[in-house]
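Problem: given the chain below (299 residues), write out its structure.
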Amino acid sequence: MRKRWITLPLLVLILATLLQAQQKDKIIFSHKFHVQNQGIECVDCHKKVPQSMSAKDVLLPDMQTCYDCHDEDETPCSKCHTNPDDPNVAPRLKGFSSRFPHKIHVNKEDNNCLDCHKGVDRAVTVGALHLPPKEQCNACHQGADVATNKLQCLTCHQADMNFTPLSHRLNWRKDHGVVEQAGNEKCTHCHQNNYCVTCHEGDNLNHNVHPLNFKYTHGLMAKGNKENCLTCHQEEAFCVDCHRSEDVMPKSHASPNWSNRIAGDGGEHAREAEMDFDTCMSCHNDAYADVVCVKCHGK
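Solution.
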């Protein structure tokens, strides 16, 4: 069996790559220590935030801000940099709209930085950005109401931005029901409750919503999980209208003893009516009862 040896130049390249990755500078900073242990306020370091009207503003503290508390001559670079020989600066955020005004949000009464940047006061590294998700914005801004008018969305989003969330992939139309069943809090950020009706109409039994043979098998689901059916099909009126038009009767009605002409004995249906007449009336009501029931009871 032939042994494969890594050539020396390739080995040198691998080691050089690993060494370079190890030497790449990372900022050493603990928000938890500064906020909880030292009692430093967010604006003490992020001084430009209260006046910032654009996300293009540089709001991260520079080294001079650190020197407001730390002695420049006595503080070694290695205290904040993993590679003090080639120090790096914190990267700027990308992919966000420049329209967000910190000034308006910070200066509102009772607003706190941690209301949006949750968890940053407990962070011991600067790896996590702690940026608020859309759901956090929705705690104050009614997203579904705003989403009805795209012009209002431009308050925060740039006109050339794609408003569709990353979760809405090519197979989203098929998979979105799983997310909705888990909890539609995220859905209602953009979609009002009546949005679903555009696809999920009450008389829609085609394969876009239900399986191909659902018209013939839905009775099993209706018996096992009636509440799930009532999510879209309100009350039993929907079932009655369809069963009438298709002339579909309950299985009990096929019994030879369901209705008979024996004097004084109306058969099984008479006994069922005596015990639970409301169930009978769920189908046999108003004009339909006149057509069916009067055939025998009207004589």
